[in-house]
Design brief:
This protein has about 130 residues and is of the alpha+beta class. The protein contains three helices and five strands. It has a five-stranded antiparallel sheet with strand order 1-2-5-4-3, with helices on one face.
Length: about 130
């Protein structure tokens, strides 16, 4: 009785990683070679809320070709507002004073902003589901 639920839970955790959820929800592809560094979220029972996930990315040549490279005050403000209440440790907060690349996705009233901090090789995912 105990083994079956544990097996189902383990399989679910393996198949539905945070990366897979981003890919499925936003119909995007993320880099293959990355490691999860931090994941903070506020979520209600309906699944809405804010999520900030940070990855260390190792192979960036193919993935970031269509990202914008110009700094953007609006993107920085949105991202800063999203993580304000998440208690993100300083080492995992994006440093917008350094060079970064970004891309914004919208669907209905939902937002996903992907920011890549070049000098740290960190990929930040900022998601707001309403």
């Amino acid at each position: 009785i105990v083994i079956v639920p544990l097996m189902l839970y383990s399989i679910g955790c393996f198949l539905f990683t945070t990366e897979k959820m981003y890919e499925i929800n936003w119909n995007i592809t993320l880099p293959d070679d990355m490691d999860l560094l931090d994941d903070k979220k506020t979520e209600s029972f309906r699944g809405d809320g804010i999520r900030h996930t940070v990855y260390s990315v190792h192979d960036t040549e193919k993935y970031f070709f269509d990202f914008k490279t110009a700094n953007n005050d609006e993107i920085e403000k949105i991202c800063s507002n999203m993580i304000a209440g998440l208690q993100v440790e300083e080492i995992y907060a994006p440093d917008f004073t350094t060079e970064y690349m970004w891309k914004k996705y919208t669907r209905d009233n939902n937002i996903l902003i992907v920011v890549y901090i070049l000098d740290k090789e960190q990929l930040h995912m900022f998601q707001q589901l309403i």
